[in-house]
Predict the structure.
Amino acid sequence: MSVDSAVVRRIAHLARIAVEEKEVERLRGELNAILSFVETLGEVNVEGVEPIASVLPMQMKKRVDVVSDGGIADDILANAPAREDHYFVVPKVVE
């Protein structure tokens, strides 16, 4: 598969990219090189190869899924202008 100058202009138009006429040939060559590389990748035999997300074996660190208040309510409310038990006290805004 290869692209010609008309296809390059059409792609630029659809992508809303301003392309000078002198750039069309250079872009055509680059696009054809990219397509050629993709075709080369398609020829690689990947039969029996498992897909991977990373080349390094990695495990996500997980914490225990336990609901808690964090145990730092006093620290959180330390700078509160007004507090009551473990809650912020704010002026009433809805009648």
User: Anything to note?
Assistant: Strands lie at 83-84, 87-88.
